[in-house]
Design a protein that fits this description.
This protein has about 325 residues and is of the alpha/beta class. It folds into 2 domains: about 1-45, no CATH class; about 50-330, TIM Barrel (Alpha-Beta Barrel), CATH 3.20.20. It contains 12 helices and 9 strands. It has a 7-stranded parallel beta sheet, covered by helices on one side. A two-stranded parallel sheet has the order 1-2. The chain binds S-adenosylmethionine and iron/sulfur cluster. Iron/sulfur cluster binds near residues 64, 69, 71, 111 and 141.
Length: about 325
């Protein structure tokens, strides 16, 4: 959400990419990606004494170690006890602000149901505004979204409540691999049925099931999207393109992004995305049929890890004559 005053609009636009957003990372912004950015500019005439929106994303904690997570790589390195003291201080400081909040959201940078401070803040939220004026938006990996954990924040059910649940795959092997967990995907499937029951009762008002589309799971996406809609009653299915996250292994990062123009699976990915399910208005493809901005492997390595790039180029150079001979031999033998 972007908030600007009418007068400051010009300065805002100057500061944020000259109005054409050319400095923005399009794959990271659904509004740019889907061409709706102008709908999200808000006019505010006076700066209010208290903010009306609260975005909770400070607690760096999660029960998963997703191989592709952009958040984890930015987390502070201090021991949890030290960070915990900071989170408790934030929880205290937020208390007087809470009644004035009309829109609350959590948790874009860690896992909601493992973030004790954020859960506390959510559970204590008693807005001065009427329930009809208030909304909440939750994002979670769904692994702990069962009846017991929901109880902690069921007060949110009285407001306009949107829930987004990220699932890497419905295939157990792929799920465990990408989410870095030993938890069976069946647990998440059971939880999705529980969440569906909340949606059917109108406690949840919008259910989005999301995935990060990448080399390991892209071919599963047609079935994934169908299942989200038909079995779990998702209002929307968000297919978010993998953003290079800087795991430290840049060759692996590069290979994970099969939307790049020179990726060996790019054509296969394009074909998969021709499936009619992606025409369903419930499916939001943030990839938008575009190639990603990831360059070819050698340029990518030059940008991120020069040492590896040189090693890679030397290896390619050394192997090149052997490959040529192998190809010629195959041709001669008619294979
Ligand atoms: C950091 S997570 C926090 C919320 C929650 N733990 C979850 O996984 O849904 C927020 C969102 O970012 C997405 N995400 C993480 N790494 C990403 C990447 N490299 N590219 C694109 N999306 C990514 C997640 O899949 C999730 O939908
Ligand atoms: S569940 Fe969310 S926060 Fe946790 S590692 Fe995966 S993407 Fe990151």
């Amino acid at each position: 959400m972007t908030s600007i005053t009418a007068k400051k609009r010009k300065v805002f636009i100057q500061n944020w990419g000259g109005g054409d957003y050319s400095d923005c990372l399009i794959d990271a912004c659904p509004y740019l990606s889907m061409g709706t950015i102008n709908d999200h500019l808000i006019e505010i005439d006076d700066i209010p004494e208290y903010p009306s929106s609260l975005y909770l994303a400070h607690e760096e904690i999660c029960n998963y170690t997703c191989t592709f997570c952009t958040s984890r790589v930015t987390w502070k390195k201090e021991p949890l006890e030290v960070r915990q003291a900071g989170y408790e201080a934030i929880t205290e400081k937020l208390r007087p602000v809470l009644p004035h909040i009309k829109r609350i959201s959590a948790h874009g940078r860690g896992e909601l149901f493992t973030a004790k401070g954020i859960l506390k803040t959510l559970s204590e939220w008693k807005p001065l505004a009427s329930a009809e004026e208030c909304s909440a938006s939750l994002e979670t990996n769904g692994s702990l979204f069962d009846a017991e954990h929901w109880k902690q924040i069921e007060n949110l059910g009285q407001y306009n409540l949107r829930v987004a649940i990220t699932v890497t795959s419905f295939d157990d092997y792929t799920y465990k691999l990408l989410s870095g967990t030993t938890l069976s995907v069946q647990q998440v499937i059971d939880n999705l049925h529980f969440v569906k029951s909340l949606r059917e009762k109108g406690i949840i008002n919008h259910l989005e099931i999301a995935s990060v589309v990448q080399e390991r799971n892209f071919w599963q996406m047609p079935d994934f999207a169908r299942r989200c809609i038909e079995e779990f009653g998702a209002d929307t299915v968000r297919l978010r393109p993998y953003l290079v996250h800087g795991s430290g292994d840049f060759i692996r990062d590069w290979f994970t992004d099969m939307r790049s123009a020179t990726h060996p699976y790019r054509e296969e990915y394009r074909q998969i995305m021709q499936d009619p399910i992606f025409q369903n208005p419930k499916v939001l493809d943030w990839g938008g049929g575009r190639d990603s901005q990831t360059t070819d492997l050698l340029t990518f390595l030059m940008q991120h890890d020069r040492k590896k790039a040189v090693k890679f180029a030397l290896k390619e150079l050394a192997e090149w004559p052997f490959r040529k001979v192998k190809r010629a031999a195959k041709k001669l033998l008619g294979r």
